[in-house]
Amino acid sequence: MIRRMTPVDLPAVTRLDARVFGQEAWTLAEFGQELAGPDRLYFVWEGVDPALGQRGEFDTPGQRSRFDMTGRSSGLDGGPGTSRAPAVVLGYAGVWTGGPDAHLLTLAVSPSVRRSGIGTGLVSAAARAARLADCRRMRLEVRVDNLAAIRLYEHLGFVRIGYEPHYYQPEDVDAYIMGHTLGSVDHDHDDRHGGRNEHGGDDGYAGKAR
């Protein structure tokens, strides 16, 4: 299920972020600042991790509320008559909606559940939030060497509109800037990546992915 991220989720989200992004990972304090920042919306995908089958390192103790942005089950919680393992945070995304161009700030999916549509669902939730905020377009940055992420974004209708050399630090990796006119986002393609996007616009986002 996709729902809005809350402060209770931050420890689990921070651990998942470190697993996916390594040196580029945000701290707990940085996630807290992001979650409380103006014009920022963060979402998590919560479900059962098939690699764990029980409460694991990405679990959010006590957080069992569901806010279904997609109107459908994640397909990861088991069927009728099965014993349901506790839900964990399997992915998250953040979007800035303070201007005509929304900005997908970050996207990550646990490696154990990639190719299950979670990334697509999270991007779709971010796009829906941007449309409700009267944004006309969405843009993002993606590492030029993250071919799986680039394929996902292209499948969702994003196109390359720019190039930023030396964008990702400390690894000194270039970035493509990609954009999408809001109106529809494809729900049917799988995700194979984590994608961190950085923003340097007028909304106060500065520094590493800030």
Strand content: 25-35%
Number of strands: 8
Order of helices and strands: EHHEEEHEHEEE
- Residue share in helix: 10-25%
Query: If you average the pLDDT, what whole number results?
Result: 77
Question: Rg to the nearest angstrom?
Answer: 16 Å
Number of helices: 4
- The general outline is globular
**SS-based structural class?**
alpha+beta
**Distance between termini?**
27 Å
Provide structural commentary.
- The chain has about 210 residues and is of the alpha+beta class.
- It contains four helices and eight strands; from the N terminus they run E-H-H-E-E-E-H-E-H-E-E-E.
- The chain has helices at about 10-20, 30-35, 120-130, 145-155, and strands spanning about 1-5, 40-45, 90-95, 100-110, 135-145, 160-170, 175-180, 195.
- Strands 1, 2, 3, 4, 5, 6, 7 and 8 form an eight-stranded mixed β-sheet that branches.
- Strand 6 and strand 7 (about 175-180) form a beta hairpin.
- It is globular.
- The two termini are about 25 Å apart.
- The model is unreliable at about 55-80, about 185-195 and about 200-210 (pLDDT under 50).
Features:
single chain; 210 residues; alpha+beta; eight-stranded mixed sheet; 4 helices; 8 strands; 27% strand; disordered C terminus
